[in-house]
Amino acid sequence: TLTHQYIIRPNSYLLDFNIQFSGADKLFSQNLMHLQWQTRAVQHEKDPKYERQQSQIVYLEDEGYDYVASKSEHTFDKPLSWISVKQQFFNVTLVAKDKFDNGQVQWTRNLSDTTNTIAQATSSFTKKLSGASSVNVPLQFYYGPNDYKILRNIGVEKMDRIINLGQGIYSFVRPINQFIIIPVFGFFRSFIGSLGVVILLLTLVIRLLTSPLVYTSYLSGAKMKAMRPELDILKKKFPDQQAYSMEQMKLFREVGVNPLGGCIPALLQIPIFFALYSLFNSSIALRGEHFLWAKDLSTYDSIAHLSFSIPGYGDHISLFTLTAVATSFLISLTNTAMTPDQSNPAMKYMPYIFPFVLLLVFNNLPAALTWYYTVSNFITLVLQWVINHYIIDHDKILAKLKENKSKPKTKSKWQERLDQMQETQKKVQQMKKK
């Protein structure tokens, strides 16, 4: 005999599923049980295309978490604890309490928007039974939300990994979400009803923590601005771009300025953006939450629907995307005014190219993310104005640069080799001109 036993527990998304055999030694050859599980993920969200991009197969194999997104199939050669068909905010998971020995999954994401099917999965598993006559195979099903707190406390090992808080090449941002952003977000959410306001306060905290980096960046920009007259003289004196670059680096060393000083602090803030990108794409707390004109913070805030679709942009206009792009453009213009004139055309037009790229990329992102970016940009503009007008003393910076230039310099071996290379390049250029 074969019995399927289901146990439904109160206030739980877990369903116990026990497969009980009597006379198992007569039912199976070589004591091998084969199980096939078929799942069809249907549309739950506003944008099926975006929901499809967020859908994955997630699994825990031999204590190691991994996922399948773009591949069409995967083979499990090691013991499998659980496998999940994950959509943007919900998942269906099969848990093997005693683990499957091996198996495989075939996974297809429906590319057509004509049906409500997001993806389909067919999984096959094998388990070696004990050989006894009476055998029980304990399994569980999870039908429920991708809620970090629920999955972390549900009692299934590493099931919180189903939620994408940073995976693949972005897995380094997961600790940022786990130990910084989620606790701060949860703290504000505990006494503030509007999640739009919660995101605003979260942004303020993040910018407060990163403010030393911002100051360093603007200080570097102020130094570069103070050097502009000398750089203009060098440009006239050395019309050849390569010769000008070498003299420019020489001047930077003399006055003690790092030309990358303004870029490095900005680069260090990129992991925070990727962390928030992962969190806001997977946080079910945002689903259906209103804020200002946005009807749902978990998806784009459309203020107008187009009768046609623009490639790379979409068929709607997101207002938070426009505010994020506009503030980014103002920041780019301000930064350009603080740095020396760029002779490279690509760098010269970057303040205009970058916001256009953001317009294409951001238009389909969740309103929570574009709202965060807008607030962050606005804070940046305020900080720029305050630091430049009330904190940074441009006269003192100029005096310090002149003082550094007059000091005797001791060159490192690396600088000596670099100078030798530059001198060699000069001689080669002179010979070519002759």
Q: Explain this structure to me?
A:
The structure is a single chain. The protein has 434 residues and is α+β, with helices and mostly antiparallel strands. The protein has 16 helices and 13 strands. It has a 7-stranded antiparallel beta sheet, with no helix packed on it. It has a 4-stranded antiparallel beta sheet with strand order 3-10-9-6. A hairpin with a 5-residue loop joins strand 1 and strand 2 (14-22). The mean pLDDT is 81.
Question: Summary?
Answer:
The protein is elongated. With 434 residues, the protein is of the alpha+beta class. The model has no long low-confidence stretch (mean pLDDT 81).
Strand content: 15-25%
Shape verdict: elongated
- For the termini, the CA-CA separation is 97 Å
Rounded to the nearest angstrom, the radius of gyration is: 29 Å
Query: Given the helix and strand composition, which structural class is it?
Result: alpha+beta
The SSE order reads: EEHEHEEEEEEEEHHHHHHHHEEHHHHHH
Mean pLDDT: 81
Unreliable residue runs: none
- Please work out how many helical segments DSSP would assign: 16
The largest sheet has its strands arranged as 1-2-11-8-7-4-5
**Got a strand count?**
13
Largest sheet: 7 strands, antiparallel
The percentage helix is 40-55%
